[in-house]
Design a protein that fits this description.
Blueprint (H helix, E strand, L loop, with lengths): L24 H11 L8 E3 L5 E3 L1 E4 L7 H17 L3 E3 L8 H16 L8 E6 L12 H13 L18 H15 L4 E7 L10 H20 L3 E7 L16 H12 L5 E7 L6 H4 L3 E3 L2 E3 L1 H7 L3 E5 L25 H10 L6 E5 L3 H8 L9
Parallel strand pairs: 3-12, 4-5, 5-6, 6-7, 7-8, 8-11, 11-12
Antiparallel strand pairs: 1-2, 9-10
Helix pairs in contact: 2-3, 2-11, 3-5, 6-7
């Protein structure tokens, strides 16, 4: 009998076996068994609610909106899967939706060729920013006309629901983005769907209004999980969880968890957070920014205590940490041969971090980063 899927609360599906549409504990365990002899013992890690993920995941943020970069990402994701990575991260706004489409093409090719099954791959995406389509407009006026034509005139989002010129948590907008993400990826179910940088709202609305907007957004996510469109949701943040409570852009994990429980009860689907962790940005592991039991603790400590899976983003800080690290860093990672490996291993080794995410469009880049976790062969 197939093991329970990624998360504890399974949506009803009278005609479709939901475990065929998403990552499962059994599927990801079989992926681990295929590759575990290649890697160190802790390379594959259990998430809080079921599936096993590679502790190094591939991201798709950087690059140009070109066919060449589309093909590069398709090839890179296929290569990553073939080398033992089963955690793939993207977002609807990355490269004008092209990254989602490239990831989708790679996944379909991998499944069709027998390289992997759907149940073996953990796929995440994000919504929050108004997504462009294929190419960015040439001017600011062109962008504004695009937003008016494609989103406001279509009643997908109202002008007052947009902040900073392009960010929204409005329910209709999130439903639209999720539908587009599923279409772009070619997936019935996305394993983790993040609200993307919700702290950006605080530049335009107060905390009372943000809570109302987040409550509405969490409601959409819970409903989507019940329909089987996502397996779980979370928040992917840049500054929100790493800055202290007195900072105007602070997000409280306690408040986010309370909202999830208020809406979804004990079986809520708020399961993950994604935030920057790297050699140059260690705040999530060092600074006490989150309240937990009446005390301030680092964000990763708070997240793990709350039962959330933590994914570290920007492990290479968009390539800036892949070379020219200070000489004092190398002795701290004697098994690593390159700075990219050292930067990845720094994140992978952090207590509470399930996986380190890095962007890659080249096979040799993927191989280099994975080498930090490969078993060393005896000479």
């Amino acid at each position: 009998m197939e093991s329970r899927s990624f998360y504890a609360h399974e949506p009803a599906a009278p005609t479709v076996d939901q475990t065929l549409l998403r990552a499962t504990a059994a599927g990801t365990s079989s992926f681990r068994k295929r590759f575990e002899s290649r890697f160190v013992a802790d390379f594959f890690r259990q998430t809080k609610r079921g599936p096993v993920v590679s502790s190094i995941g591939i991201g798709t943020y950087l690059g140009e909106s070109t066919d060449d970069d589309d093909l590069a990402y398709e090839t890179a994701v296929r290569h990553a899967i073939g080398r033992g990575i089963n955690l793939i991260d993207t977002a609807i706004n990355y490269r004008c939706q092209r990254s989602e489409r490239a990831v989708g093409a790679a996944i379909q090719q991998a499944i069709a060729s027998g390289q992997a099954t759907r149940q073996q791959l953990v796929v995440s995406s994000k919504a929050g920013y108004i997504p462009l389509d294929k190419m960015p407009p040439a001017t600011r006026q062109g962008y504004q006309a695009y937003v008016q034509r494609e989103f406001i005139d279509q009643d997908i989002v109202r002008p007052e629901e947009i902040v900073g010129g392009g960010h929204s948590l409005a329910p209709r907008f999130l439903r639209y983005c999720l539908a587009k993400s599923r279409q772009n990826l070619g997936l019935r179910t996305i394993d983790i769907y993040y609200l993307h940088n919700p702290e950006q709202q605080l530049g335009s609305v107060d905390r009372v209004e943000l809570r109302l907007r987040l409550r509405a957004a969490f409601t959409v996510m819970e409903e989507s999980a019940d329909r089987g469109e996502i397996a779980a949701y979370g928040c992917a943040t840049w500054n929100g969880l790493r800055v202290p409570p007195e900072n105007s852009g602070h997000l409280s994990l306690e408040e986010l968890m309370a909202l999830a429980r208020e809406i979804g009860g004990d079986s809520h689907h708020f399961r993950a957070v994604q935030l920057p962790v790297n050699l140059a940005m260690p705040e999530a592991i060092r600074l006490p920014t989150q309240r937990l039991g009446g005390h301030l603790v680092p964000a990763i400590t708070a997240a793990t205590e709350m039962g959330l899976t933590v994914l570290g983003s920007a492990s290479l800080m968009q390539g800036k940490l892949a070379a020219n690290l200070p000489g004092a860093v190398a002795p701290l990672f004697p098994e690593c041969r390159t700075d990219a490996q050292r930067a990845i291993e720094f994140v992978r080794a952090m207590p509470g971090v399930t996986a380190a995410l890095f962007g890659a469009r080249q096979a040799d880049h993927i191989d280099d980063c994975l080498a930090c976790a490969e078993r060393r062969r005896m000479n």
